[in-house]
């Protein structure tokens, strides 16, 4: 990395991607179809192995004597737990920093110095941060640091994995969402995906939309109040890739022919401190029991979670195979196993272990 930090951050995302390569995970736009198909296959293989004691033991010996840091400067349940579980499944030791106020950052240490400090002790960093440039900054710092990791047959900087950066990027959620959609629908090609809620600041929906370019014929519908509609940076990417997308006035207007509905909550944490509770979902963008009756039998209802009032709570009590968000949550473990295996060069071994 010969660029200064300012020069690297000033590059458009598309120009950063070749510099990142397969040494870190910062953006959904890094991934091409072949890699994503491979990750889904590794996730499925790891899942299958882990069902038996012998397979779980085999999986747990793939990445021994390595230390993972889960550095979360924002609240998290699923992303933190699934990475921690995935790391354990592969044999990692784990440490975490979840309260920045108890780290040296509270004394004024820069993010760069903190990352370089962590690199002295750990072999991979998964991080969530409110700053949209935090993961890219950490990657730059790791690339400039003295320490290198032997992964497979190569030496690389300590990998950085974004577990969510600002309101724009959540690449590993997009990967597990694709894995979930493929498991439920068989294929994403030619499908119609309805994204609902806070699409402006929903980093999960934004990252998932970026992967639409990889699946010929995949159509996107965006249902959101105008204040929360998908931003032009994503729709411009979709236009450039020839992806068919449209805005629909309400959730109900987008249901006909939808193969999947992807709900999101209002991301009101970006609005600043509040004393009067959370922003309620607009009734036109709330998934009701009656909407499930309009959804095709093969379709699936997803949500990256946490959810609030944007899905009727009664739907949780239904034994309906179209309600997929709890399966989606569990799928995150296996996709993150696959991602770590890929970064550490043991994905081939996992694939070969399954007949």
Short description:
Helices cover 39% and strands 15% of the residues. It has 355 residues and is of the alpha/beta class. It has two domains: 5-167 and 332-347, Aspartate/ornithine carbamoyltransferase (Rossmann fold, 3-Layer(aba) Sandwich), CATH 3.40.50.1370; 171-330, Rossmann fold, CATH 3.40.50.1370.
What does this structure look like?
The chain starts with a helix and ends with a helix. The strands form three sheets. A five-stranded parallel beta sheet has the order 9-8-7-10-11. It has a four-stranded parallel beta sheet with strand order 2-1-3-6, sandwiched between helices. The radius of gyration is 20 Å and the shape is globular. The chain has two domains: 5-167 and 332-347, 3-Layer(aba) Sandwich (Rossmann fold), CATH 3.40.50; 171-330, Aspartate/ornithine carbamoyltransferase (Rossmann fold), CATH 3.40.50.1370. It has helices at 5-10, 13-20, 33-49, 53-60, 78-90, 111-119, 134-144, 171-185, 203-210, 232-241, 251-254, 289-294, 325-343, 347-352, and strands at residues 67-72, 93-97, 124-129, 148-151, 154-157, 160-165, 192-196, 219-223, 244-248, 260-263, 300-302. It is α/β, with parallel strands linked by helices.
């Amino acid at each position: 990395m010969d660029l200064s930090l300012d020069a690297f951050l000033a590059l458009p995302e598309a120009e950063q991607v070749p510099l990142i390569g397969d040494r870190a995970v910062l953006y959904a736009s890094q991934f091409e179809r072949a890699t994503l198909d491979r990750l889904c296959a590794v996730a499925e293989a790891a899942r299958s192995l882990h069902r038996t004691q012998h397979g779980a033991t085999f999986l747990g010996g793939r990445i021994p004597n390595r230390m993972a840091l889960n550095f979360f400067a924002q609240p998290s349940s699923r992303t933190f737990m699934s990475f921690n579980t995935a790391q354990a499944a592969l044999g990692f030791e784990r440490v975490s920093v979840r309260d920045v106020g108890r780290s040296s950052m509270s004394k004024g240490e820069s993010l760069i110095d903190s990352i370089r400090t962590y690199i002295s002790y750990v072999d991979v960093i998964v991080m969530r941060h409110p700053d949209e440039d935090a993961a890219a900054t950490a990657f730059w710092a790791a690339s400039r640091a003295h320490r290198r990791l032997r992964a497979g047959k190569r030496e690389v900087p300590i990998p950085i994995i974004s577990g969510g950066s600002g309101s724009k990027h959540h690449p590993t959620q997009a990967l597990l969402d694709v894995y979930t959609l493929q498991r439920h629908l068989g294929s994403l090609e030619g499908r119609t995906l309805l994204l609902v809620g806070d699409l402006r600041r929903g980093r999960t929906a934004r990252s998932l939309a970026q992967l639409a370019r990889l699946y010929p014929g995949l159509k996107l519908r965006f249902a959101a109040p105008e204040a929360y509609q998908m931003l032009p940076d994503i729709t411009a990417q979709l236009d450039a890739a020839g992806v068919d997308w449209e805005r629909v006035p309400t959730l109900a207007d987008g249901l006909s022919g939808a193969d999947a509905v992807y709900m999101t909550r209002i991301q009101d944490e970006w609005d600043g401190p509040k004393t009067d509770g959370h922003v309620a979902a607009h009734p036109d963008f709330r998934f009701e029991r009656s909407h499930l009756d309009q959804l095709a039998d093969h379709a699936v209802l997803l949500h990256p979670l946490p959810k609030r009032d944007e899905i009727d709570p009664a739907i949780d009590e239904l034994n309906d195979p179209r309600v997929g968000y709890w399966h989606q949550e569990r799928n995150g473990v296996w996709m993150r196993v696959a991602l770590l295996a890929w970064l550490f060069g043991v994905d081939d071994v996992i694939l070969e272990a399954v007949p």
